[in-house]
């Protein structure tokens, strides 16, 4: 299972002048576990994995997961002991999709991007301080990168999709994000220091698309282009991943042009909804 960053924790809930809402911490921890279980994908995650990533004790994680299982929000594979998303999440997601999901709108564009480039193409959405992959379409080139797949989360600025989104946020939002996440260097390496991220943000703004030169997995490159709401907010991103020798020289520039054209097409389509 990929080691994923802790999801951003919401501010402590308050109820006017009456102080903290009872149970807010428990709800925040349970929600964080749900995100981690979902991010683990079809293989699921062990209690130990989840305890480490959530920075909680194993008994606490087991107690919360057991309560979530009663409600159908998570499930447990009895053979492996791994925890997986539960059926109630599917039902909730089906209802929420009518408001938030753009996969039906975007799928043919993602598929076209994979066909045109022969690389793996993706649609990701911004969720708080992270991006979540919604759609993956593989191109015809037989060597592929498997850094990204549906449900996988990365912090903004780490994968190319998140860097593309971060680069087109207002400057004050970028500053606040970097202040909130000093742990990026420890978890993702010195290339994710604030100074180096700001350099890549400036490069992305100048180029129009983000480049990740193997910073997550050596030899696996990525390109990302922001997709905007009608109001001009970078809420989604299209991206490409592949092996390093496929992303060099003139081909890199050509991939960038194709990616930007598809991102513009999707932004236009979303604005017309």
Secondary structure elements and their pairing?
Layout: H1 24-39, H2 47-54, H3 58-70, E1 74-76, E2 83-85, H4 87-100, H5 103-117, E3 120-127, E4 130-137, E5 153-155, H6 160-167, H7 171-180, H8 184-188, H9 194-207, E6 210-213, E7 220-228, E8 234-243, H10 249-271
Antiparallel strand pairs: 1-2, 3-4, 3-8, 4-5, 6-7, 7-8
Helix pairs in contact: 1-3, 2-3, 5-10, 6-9
Write up what this structure looks like.
The protein is α+β, with helices and mostly antiparallel strands and 273 residues long. It has two domains: 16-92, Arc Repressor Mutant, subunit A (Orthogonal Bundle); 101-271, Beta-Lactamase, CATH 3.30.450. It has ten helices and eight strands. The strands form two sheets. A six-stranded antiparallel beta sheet has the order 5-4-3-8-7-6, with helices on both faces. A hairpin with a 6-residue loop joins strand 6 (210-213) and strand 7 (220-228). Helix 1 (24-39) packs across helix 3 (58-70), helix 2 crosses helix 3 and helix 5 (103-117) packs antiparallel against helix 10. The longest helix is centred in the C-terminal third of the chain and has 23 residues, at 249-271. It is globular. Mean pLDDT is 88; it is low at 1-18.
Query: How many distinct folded domains?
Result: 2
Oligomer: single chain
Order of strands side by side in the largest beta sheet? 5-4-3-8-7-6
How much is the radius of gyration in Å? 19 Å
| Overall body shape | globular
Q: What structural category arises from helix and sheet content?
A: alpha+beta
What is the fold named in CATH at topology level of the largest domain? Beta-Lactamase
């Amino acid at each position: 299972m990929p080691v994923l960053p802790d999801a951003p924790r919401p501010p402590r809930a308050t109820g006017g002048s009456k102080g903290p809402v009872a149970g807010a911490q428990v709800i925040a921890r349970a929600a964080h576990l749900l995100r981690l279980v979902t991010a683990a994908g079809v293989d699921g995650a062990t209690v130990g994995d989840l305890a480490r990533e959530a920075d909680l004790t194993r008994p606490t994680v087991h107690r919360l997961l057991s309560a979530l299982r009663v409600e159908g929000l998570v499930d447990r594979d009895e053979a492996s002991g791994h925890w997986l998303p539960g059926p109630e999440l599917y039902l909730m997601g089906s209802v929420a999709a009518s408001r938030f999901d753009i996969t039906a709108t975007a799928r043919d564009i993602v598929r076209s991007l994979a066909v045109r480039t022969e690389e793996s193409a993706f649609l990701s959405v911004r969720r708080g301080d992270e991006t979540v992959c919604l759609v993956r379409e593989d191109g015809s080139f037989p060597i592929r990168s498997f850094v990204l797949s549906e449900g996988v989360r990365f912090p903004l600025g780490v994968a190319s999709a998140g860097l593309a989104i971060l680069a087109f946020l207002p400057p004050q939002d970028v500053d606040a994000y970097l202040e909130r996440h000093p742990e990026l260097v420890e978890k993702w390496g010195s290339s994710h220091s604030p100074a180096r991220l700001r350099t890549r943000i400036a490069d992305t703004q100048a180029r129009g698309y983000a480049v990740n030169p193997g910073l997550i997995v050596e030899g696996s490159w990525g390109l990302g282009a922001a997709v905007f709401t009608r109001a001009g907010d970078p809420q989604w991103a299209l991206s490409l991943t592949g092996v390093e020798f496929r992303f060099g020289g003139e081909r890199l520039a050509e991939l960038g042009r194709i990616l930007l054209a598809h991102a513009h097409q999707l932004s236009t389509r979303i604005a017309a909804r």
